[in-house]
Amino acid sequence: MSEVEYVRERWARLQKLRSSGVETLPYRFEITHTLEEIVELYGHEQDAGRLQTVWARLAGRVQSLRWHGKTTFCHIQGRQARLQVYARQDALGPEAYEAFTNLDLGDVIGVEGHLFRTKTGELTLAVQRWALLAKCWLPLPEPWHGLTDVEARYRRRYLDLIANPRVRSIFLRRSQIVRLIRQFLDSRGFIEVETPVLQPLYGGALARPFKTYHNVLEAELFLRIAPELYLKRLIVGNLERVYEVARNFRNEGVSTLHNPEFTMLELYQAYADYEDIMRLTEEMVAFLATELFGTLRITFQDQTIDLTPPWRRLPMLAGLMEVGGFTEEQLYDRAFLVARAAELGVPRAGDLSWGKLIAELFERLVQPTLVQPTFVTDFPVDISPLARRKRDDPRLVERFELFIGGLELGNAFSELNDPFDQKRRFEDQQRQRETGDVEAHPIDADYVLALMYGLPPTGGLGLGIDRLTMLFCDVTSIREVILFPLLRWVPVELPIPPELDRT
RNA sequence: GAGGCGGUAGCUCAGCGGUAGAGCACUGGCCUUUUAAGCCAGGGGUCGAGGGUUCAACCCCCUCCCGCCUCACCA
Fold first, then answer.
1. Are strands A123-134 and A23-24 parallel, antiparallel or unpaired?
2. How much is the mean pLDDT over chain A?
């Protein structure tokens, strides 16, 4: 049967229901409990007499229907809990009962009655009155296999959420993660702030931006690629500890690890350095695991990951020596690095700076081995234009990236607070841009001006919320943790029968 | 951007160069404690789109669209 015919059929049933006296499509329905509350309160209550006295008004989506002549069972589903509902002709009367048997899977109903337990012991509501709250005009995916077609799952995420409990649990967990992060940071004296998404000049990361246009100002604007430079202005402004749960936009490819818009926690703490931020990070992630799972040992892709702090610190150059087999001399031997990089398939290795060569080699040789939580520290200065130089080696910066389960989760520095050095670093980026590096950081004089008023020593962190959620939900595609991942637009044809397509 | 895989009923999937299939869902009937309810009967298809080869194409060929995976790009 075509979708149009389903709609037609259900339309006819709705008309029948309207004439049965059952309340139809009301503006509100007063509930006494959510389904979660009812199950929580009475799920273990065995006393039949006591259950009998519980009168409840509940609502949910009909997710199964079993009818047996003069009685009908169904389950209604809420956000997490579901409850069985039992309708009898003798309790409802012939009209309301007949209407109940004409429900469709997917309809949203409100029910009123008392609780009891069936023969098999299942907590159930015996309906006395009911109302149709919303009509489901189209058939739902079948309950047994759920919805598996990936494209359909992303384009119609609501169906995915209805049909696949695991998907629901991922997004509930994501919400919990963000809530716990706020709780953790608030308890440490951070304040949550909001900074511009529309920026006249983008910065704070090395990436290509989306461009847009303000009509009245007649000005080009960019969607932010990171909130970093605004948050650090706030540290200049004495706010001392700030964070933002920031949606960032990067005009880059889509993959299992990248969505053009994604969510990053950024935080800045005055008077701290990157060592402090490492401790903060491991404590925060350990807090999350403990609150979510009650343990610091989690499973990701069949590997057990131990989140117990302190985590391994691995200086980038040390990693190349240990895992990559480099000697200290080789690390500064440009010809050797170029040859090794070319060997590993790095394109245009000869054109890369020392820092980029080191980073490429590290990424290929060492990164895949990082399953247990690891802070990779001390990056080359030329790929880190916003990080402060290492106190005992000006070729490097005080920066770390966090890897867990092979995922790159975060990036942090001792923030560069010297306006003169910052200006030179921007100028260096500008030169890279002129040689064709489209991701080089643009010069932001307004930001340097802010630094001239004095940025205290500051530690900052960017933590990928999407990827952190992937880790905690044991999924390998970022689209599984983003409710509506970016897909190419396709036209939709509405299955509305022509005779119903009027006012 | 390159390569691989996929798109068949509302959903999950078979299928074969020769009349389009199953399970669930749907419709009608029976059934007052069922739960992947059961039993009986029935309806439902632009086989992603377009072109080509062929007596004949869901199937073979070409182009395109959409998606997934790997790689590249990308921190």
1. parallel
2. 94
CA A485 / C1′ B35 distance in Å: 35
Closest C1' nucleotide to A345's CA: B72
Concatenating the DSSP letter of every residue in A439-450 gives TSPPP-HHHHHH
Protein-nucleic contacts, chain A 83-102 to strand B, CB < 7 Å:
84, 86, 88-90
Q: How far is CA A431 from the centre of its chain?
A: 36
**Residue A411 near residue A399 (C-beta atoms within 8 A):** yes
Give the list of residues 6+ apart from residue A24 with CB closer than 8 angstroms, or none.
A14, A17, A18, A131, A132
Contact A394, A424 (CB under 8 A): no
Both tokens of A15, joined, read 């008309």
* Beta partners for residue A393, in sequence order: A390
Chain mean position to CA A161: 15
Using the structure, give the distance in angstroms from the CA atom of A76 to the C1' atom of B35, rounded to a whole number.
13
Q: For residue A69, say whether its CB is under 7 Å from any atom of strand B.
A: yes
Distance (Å, whole) CA A409 – CA A264: 10
Tell me: cis bond preceding A26? Omega within 30 of 0 counts: no
pTM value is 0.95
Question: Directed axis angle between helix A165-187 and helix A274-293, to 10°?
Answer: 140
Higher-confidence residue of A193 and A498: namely A193
Cα torsion A309, A310, A316, A322: sign:
negative
Residue A297: CA atoms inside 13 Å, Cβ hemisphere, count? 3
pLDDT in tens, A102-129: 999 999 999 999 999 999 999 999 999 9
The share of chain A scoring above pLDDT 90, in percent, equals 87
Residue A397, Cβ density class (10 Å: 0-12 exposed, 13-18 middle, ≥19 buried): buried
CA A470, C1' B41: Å apart? 50
Q: Are A426 and A230 in contact (CB under 8 A)?
A: no
CA distance A260 to A251: 6
Is the minimum distance from the CB of A66 to strand B below 7 Å?
A: yes
User: Is the CB of A206 less than 7 A from some atom of nucleic acid strand B?
Assistant: yes
The protein residue nearest nucleotide B73, judged by CA to C1', is A253
Q: Are strands A55-68 and A71-77 parallel, antiparallel or unpaired?
A: antiparallel
State whether the beta carbon of A345 lies below 7 angstroms from any atom of strand B.
Answer: yes
What DSSP string describes A30-60? --SS-HHHHHHHHTT---HHHHHT-EEEEEE
